[in-house]
Amino acid sequence: MDRVRLSRVESRLDDLQYPISREDAAEHFADTTLTYADGEENLGDRILDCRSESFADLDELVSDLYNILPVEALGEPGQSEGDA
């Protein structure tokens, strides 16, 4: 199983070919664990939780993903994203 920190997830999501469906993006990361300040979870599962059915580009996926992350994922104020 692959692991990626929240602070580095954008570069991993950039590997996808856009536009991409939510299901295809989730399948691509089905074996990837997303780690953040206060825990970890499966990145593919979290992508499935996104509201959009598809993503036109990287920015759209990143925005959707960050909108559904728990507050705890970002850590305490002043901490780097997920590197706490």
Topology, pairings included?
Layout: E1 2-5, H1 9-13, E2 20-21, H2 22-28, E3 32-36, E4 39-42, H3 43-48, E5 54-55, H4 58-68
Parallel strand pairs: 1-3
Antiparallel strand pairs: 2-5, 3-4
Notable traits:
single chain, DUF2795 domain-containing protein, alpha+beta, DUF5789, 5 strands, disordered C terminus, 84 residues, two-stranded antiparallel ribbon
Overview of the molecule:
The chain has 84 residues and is α+β, with helices and mostly antiparallel strands. It has one domain. It has 4 helices and 5 strands. It has a 3-stranded mixed β-sheet. A two-stranded antiparallel sheet has the order 2-5. The radius of gyration is 12 Å and the shape is globular. 19% of the residues are buried. The C terminus is likely disordered. It comes from Halorarum salinum. This is DUF2795 domain-containing protein.
Low-pLDDT ranges: 77-84
Structural class: alpha+beta
Number of strands: 5
Rounded mean pLDDT is 89
The geometry reads as globular
Bin the helical content.
Answer: 25-40%
Gyration radius, to the nearest Å?
12 Å
| Count of alpha/pi helices | 4
**Tally of distinct domains:** 1
Largest sheet entry: 3 strands, mixed
The helix/strand order is: EHEHEEHEH
Percent in strands: 15-25%
Amino- and carboxy-terminal Cα gap: 22 Å
Strand order of the largest sheet: 1-3-4
Pfam families: DUF5789
Organism: Halorarum salinum
Protein name: DUF2795 domain-containing protein
InterPro entries: DUF5789 (IPR043899)
